[in-house]
Design a protein that fits this description.
Elements: E1 2-5, E2 10-18, E3 22-30, E4 34-38, E5 42-46, E6 52-57, E7 60-64, E8 70-75, E9 81-85, H1 88-107, H2 115-125, H3 129-142, E10 157-160, E11 162-163, E12 182-183, H4 186-200, E13 210-213, H5 222-235, H6 245-254, E14 262-265, H7 268-271, H8 276-285, E15 287-295, H9 299-304, H10 311-324, E16 327-334, H11 338-353, E17 363-368, H12 377-383, H13 391-403, E18 412-415
Parallel strand pairs: 10-13, 13-14, 14-15, 15-16, 16-17, 17-18
Antiparallel strand pairs: 1-2, 2-3, 3-4, 4-5, 5-6, 6-7, 7-8, 8-9, 11-12
Length: 423
Amino acid sequence: MSTQTLSPNLLHHVEYPAPPLAERVWVGVKRHAISLMLDEREVYTFDPAGRLWMAYIDGVNYKRGLDGRVVCKWVTPDDARHLRRLSSDEADSILRWANQMVVQALDFFPQDGDPTCKHALEKARSWDVEAHHRDAQRFLQVYKPVSILPPDQYLALVLQVTEGCHWNRCTFCDFYRDRRFAIKTPDQLREHIARVQEYFGDTLRLRNRIFLADANALVAPQKMLVPLLQVIRETFPIEPDDLSPDDLQQWREEHPVRFQGMYSFIDAFTGYRKSVTELRELQQLGVRRVYIGVETGCEDLLRFLHKPQTNEEVIQLVDALKEAGIAVGIIILLGAGGDRYAHRHVAETVALLNRLPWSAGDILYFSELIEPFAGEYTQMAKEAGIRPLSPEQMRAQRREIEASLHLPRGVQRATYDIREFVY
C-alpha cells in the first residue's frame, strides 16, 4: 500500500491490492472529484458529494447527468465511433454496479489508509440507485430541462435567466418545444439562485463559469437584462479581466469560490440590434463569450431551416461583439440541406466565415445534423426530395470548409455533438 498527499490537483490518494476485486485499487481525491480505479479496466468518477459522474467499464465510457440521463460512448476495432443514450433500466444497472464496486473497495480498504480517501468512498457508497433517483427529482424541481450547452460550457453553473426560446421555429431544433418563452424578474432570479445554491451545496466548486440559459438569454431588453446580471453578481464573484497578474492572484485568494465569467447563446437576427455600448455594458458585468448558431452562409438554406437571419446581421453582430471585447463561438450545422444544398452550404459558409473578425479566444464549432433531434426538418426534407448526407459526407463537408478558411492563430476548431450532452 502507498499513500501520499499532493497538491494542487490530486489532494490525496491511496493504492492497495484487493484480490479478487482487483490486483490494484487506486482511490484519488481531488478538489473537484473522487476517483476509483480497479486495475485499468474500470474507472469511476464521483462529484465531491458522491454522485456518480462518469465511468469507464470494459472499453465503454459512461457519463451521467444530474437529471438521471446517461450517455455511453465506445470505439469498435474498425475505429468507428458509437454513442447512444441508455434506457432508465440500463442507467440503473450502471449505478448499481458502480455502488457495488465502491462497497467492495471499502471492504478491502487498509486500516492505515488515508482517512480522506476512505471518507470519500463512504460518501460515494451512500449514493445507491434510490439516492440518485431522489436527487434527480430534486434537480428537476430546481431547473426546467437543461436542453443543450456548448461543449466548453458543460461544467458551467446554469442559471435559467430566461426559459425556452423566443423564436422556437427553426425546423431542425426541438430543444425548447416543451415550454413557453419567459424572462425572469430580478426577484424570480434571486429565488432561482437560492434554490440552485441549496441543490449544489459544496459541489458548486465543480463549476467555474456561469451559463445564462435557456436558448438566448441576451434577447432580453437591456433594461431587463442588466438588473438580472447584477443580481447574479450579488451572489457569485465574477473574475475581473482588467487586473494585473499580482492583483488577480490576490483577488483569487480572497474568492476561493469564483467564476471566470458569464456565457450565453445569442441569435444574430435579434442580437445585431444591440449597440456596442449595450454589449460593452454586458462585458463589464462579466459576459465573456457568446455563442451564435450561424448554421450556414447560404441564405436560401436558412430560409428552409426557418432561421430568419442574414449574413450581414451575423457580420454586424460579431463586429459589435468584438468592439465590446466579447469573444464568440460560431456554430456551423454540417449536413444541413442534404444533397440539394451541399455545394452552396460549403462555399457560402466559407465566404461568410472568412469575413468575420476572428481573434484568439474564439471557437468555431462544427455540429452534425442529427436526424432524431431535427424536429420537423426531417419531414420537410423528405417532402422536398432532399437526401440526407451520411456521417462520412458530413465529415468531408467539414474538411472542405476548413481547408478554405483563413483564421488567425488562437481560434479553436472543435466538434459539437449534441448527442453527447448531459448536464
